[in-house]
Amino acid sequence: MVPISHILILAGMIFALGVVCVFAHRNILMILIGVEIMLNAAGLAFVAGSMRWGMPEGQIFVLFLMAMAASEVSVGLALVVYLHKRKRSVNIDDFNEMKD
Amino acid sequence: MPSFSMDNMVSILPEMIVLSLALAVLMFDLALPKDEKRYLAYFSVAGLAIAGYQTMNLAGLQLDTFYGMFVLDGYAIFFKVLFYIAAAIAILISIGYVKGQEMDKGEYYALILFATAGMMVMASGADLISIYLGLELMALSVYILAGFMRGSMKSNEAALKYFLLGAFSSGILLYGIAIIYGVTGTTNLAGIAAFIQSGQYSGPALTLAMILLVAGFGFKVAAVPFHMWVPDVYEGAPTSVTAFMSVGPKAAGFAAFLRVFTTALPGIQPDWTVIIASLAIMSMLIGNVVAISQTNIKRMLAYSSIAHAGYAMVGFVSGGMQGVSSVMMYLFIYMFMNLGAFGMVVMLRKDGVAGEELKDFAGLAKKNRTAALLMMVFMFSLAGIPPTAGFMGKFYVFMAAIDAGFTWLAIIGVMMSAVSAYFYLRVIMYMYMKEPEGEFELAAPLSLKLAMAVAVLGVLYIGMAPAGLIDFARISIAGMM
Fold first, then answer.
1. Is the residue at A41 inside a domain?
2. Cβ atoms within 10 A of the Cβ of A20, count?
3. Is 0.90 exceeded by the ipTM?
C-alpha cells in the first residue's frame, strides 16, 4: 500500500501548483483551471484521510466536492463566455474599469 | 450518535420554507408578464415573514440532527432571524431599483432567497462539510447577483473579480478542512474539539489548517488582508445587491467563523487569538484610513465595511459569552445601519443617473429634508455616535474586549472609530453645508420608504433600548457556551 505521507505530499504539491497557476496566468481560463486543481488537491487529501482512518466519509466528501466544483465552474464559464462576447478578450488585465 | 427521526425534518423546516419559496418564485416568474415582476418581491417578503414566524416557533429547541451535521439551536435561530430581515429589506430596496436598471427578472429574487438559504445552512452547520456546502450555495448565488446588471461593464467586472477570488478562497478553505480531516479523522465540530482535547496530536498541521480556515472565512467577512475584492465588487455590483452582500454574507461568514472556532478549535485558542487580533487591527486600520480618500460613496462604504469587520473581530477575540454575544449584536445592528445607508444611495438619483459620488449628496438637505435626515442617522450610527445603535454595538464589543483583558485592542478600536467619524461626517457636511448642484430626483417607491422606515426604527430603537437585543443574543448562546 502507498504510505499516507506520500499521498499528502502529492496533494500538497498539486495544491501549490494550483495556487501558482492562479497567480502566474493572466488568462481567466487558466486561473479557473488553477482553482479547479486546488479543489482536486483538497479532494485527494480527503481520500488520503479516509484511507488513514479507514472511514468512508472522506470519499463521500469528494463526491460532494465534485458536484460543487462542477456547479462553480458552470457559473465561471458562463461568466467568461459572456465577458468574451462583450470584450473579445479573456485576459484579466482588460477588465480594469475600477481603480483606486 | 443520534438516529434519524422526525427531529431532522423539524430542524430543517426554516431552510425548506426558504428553498421552496425560491423555487416557487422561479415558477411564478414564468406566469407573470414582464413588467409585473414586483409581485414576486412582495411574495418573497411575505414568504420570509412566514419563515421568520416558523423559526421563532422553534426557539428554545436544541436539536442535533443529520448525524451531527446540522444543529438547530438558539445561535442558529438568532442568525436566521438576522438573515430574514436582511433579505427582506434588501428585496424591498431592490423593487424600484431593478426596474430602473432593467434587471427586473424573477431570478433576481430567487437568487437572493437561495443565498439566504445558504447562509442559514452556514449558521446551522455543525460539520465543516455542511458549512462548506452552505457557504458555496450562498457564494454562487451572490456571484451571479453581483453581475446581474448585464449591460454594465462595471457589474460584469465585479462578478468576475468576486468569482475568481471567491473560488480561490473557497479552495483554500477546503484544503484547510481536508487537513483537519486528515489529522483528526472527523469533520464534525464537536468531534474535532474532542480529538484536540484528548491530546493525541499537537503538531504544526493543525495550526496550518487553522490558518487556512482563517483565510477562507476572512475572505467572506472581508477582513484585511483578504479584502482586495471588496472595493471593486461593492462599487461595480448593482447597489441593491451591494446592500445585501455587505450584510448577509458577512454575517453568515461570522456565524460560521465563530461557531467553528469556538466549538471545534478551543484547544488551540491562544494560536488563533493572536491571528484574529492582528486581522482585527489591520482591518480597522486599513478600512478606516483608506476610506478617507474615497470619493465614490459605494467605495467608501466598502472600506467602512472592512473596518466594521475589524470591530466585530475585536469581540470575537475577546471570546466567551460576552464576546460572542457582542459580535452577534454588532452584526444585527450593522445590518440595519448598512442596509439603510445603501438604501439611501439607491434612492438618490442625480440628473437622471444613479448618484453614487460623494458630491452628488451636496445640498440634499435643502432639497429633501427627510432623506438628508435619514442619511444623517445612518452615518451617525456607522460612526458610532449616540443615541444610535452603532454606538451601542461598539460599546458592547469594546466592553467585552476590556473585560477579557484586551484593553489595548479596545483602545485601537476607539481611536479608529474616531478616524472613521471624519469620512462619515463628511457626507453629512456635504448634505447640509454645500449648495445643491443639478437636479435631484429621489426614486423612492413605497417599498423603499418602508424598508428605510424599518432600518431607521431599528437603528434608533436599538440605540435607545439595547437591552432586548443583548438579552436575545445572550439567551441564544446560553446552550453553546
1. yes
2. 12
3. yes
